[in-house]
Amino acid sequence: MITLRVVVDQMSSPVPxxxxxxxxxxxxxxxxxxxxxxxxxxxxxxxxAEQYAALExxxxxxxxxxxxxxxxxxxxxxxxxxxxxxxxxxxxxxxxLLAPLRKHDIVADGTQMAVTVHDVLAWTHPEALTTTTVxxxxxxxxxxxxxxxxxxxxxxxxxxxxxxxxxxxxRIRVIGGxxxxxxxxxxxxxxAETVASALALPHEYIVTVGTLEPRxxxxxxxxxxxxxxxxxxxxxxxxxxxxxxLELSSVADEAGLPPGRVRSxxxxxxxxxxxxxxxxxxxxxxxxxxGFALPIIQAFHLGTPVIHSDAPALVEAxxxxxxxxxxxxxxxxxxxxxxxxTRLLGDRALATRLGIVGSDRSRAFSWRDSAExxxxxxxxx
Length: 381
Fold this sequence. Notes:
Helix 1 packs across helix 16 (about 365-380), helix 9 packs across helix 14 and helix 12 (about 295-300) packs across helix 15 (about 350-360). The protein is globular, with a radius of gyration of 22 Å. The strands form 3 sheets. A 7-stranded parallel sheet has the order 3-2-1-4-5-6-7. A 6-stranded parallel sheet has the order 12-9-8-13-14-15, sandwiched between helices. A two-stranded antiparallel ribbon has the order 10-11. It contains 16 helices and 15 strands. The chain folds into 2 domains: about 1-180 and about 365-380, Glycogen Phosphorylase B (Rossmann fold), CATH 3.40.50; about 190-360, 3-Layer(aba) Sandwich (Rossmann fold), CATH 3.40.50. With about 375 residues, it is of the alpha/beta class.
């Protein structure tokens, strides 16, 4: 029996985040697509019995859990120093840079290691991360350059950026993600109406996903809504209402928008998020840089029209299914966003066409396809 060992530790983190969700979806798909005589095992840091049980419940069909002797924080430090122990042997796939990277020989001991780099923010936008995260990310990429047999990235955009940062030769593989398995609308219209009512969703509104971190472009979108002639619709921001000392209410006030015009939503379930995006007149994703474009793909999945920036990863994911707005000339960015909104919201035929094209585009992303490509990657190694 051939065993693929996946580092699933991020799933049991206090804040799993995007990598935790990615890990869960990919691992489930790897279990479902395992070739004959192959199985999937998880690698996890020393945790409680309850956490182990939760992991096994979330990943039905998992062959077992390899439990390290170190808790998460100590494990990350040990792996950064190359202290891997028994975790560093076999066929290993890491859905992030947390991996037992060490010197090994595929032919001699059968060990092979693939890690995943979701973005290069530690180099391009270090202010978006903690100094500890930046240092750890850079250190682990150095280890990956020395010891990883393959480095998976979610888009060609990240592949190109990574090539400029470190020489990985031909080890980079582009394997994207997809919409989460729990991201779906309620089973019937009545249930959807109940969710919408509980969230107090407006009859018509614009939705965006992000924070007030400058890279996300949410401030530019709010500014756009305050420009003369801009659409007079409320904006729902799926994300926190503040970033550092900045608050949505103050940014909206500076843009000349009345109180309540911009509203934050946090802690949404996947079903609630699906309803919010589905009922929006348009999803705007003005981010200046991303590694992957999940909010865009979620909107495509639901047939919601999309406006997004010309960040390479967003253009790559969007194809021609959304309206693209140039990021350059930051001073003029809000005006271009307002123009795109006015164009889309004033042309029902265009909105309908984009919804149909986006729905078709969403089929290009599936966890099953991603998992099969991961299995093929390890078979090639």
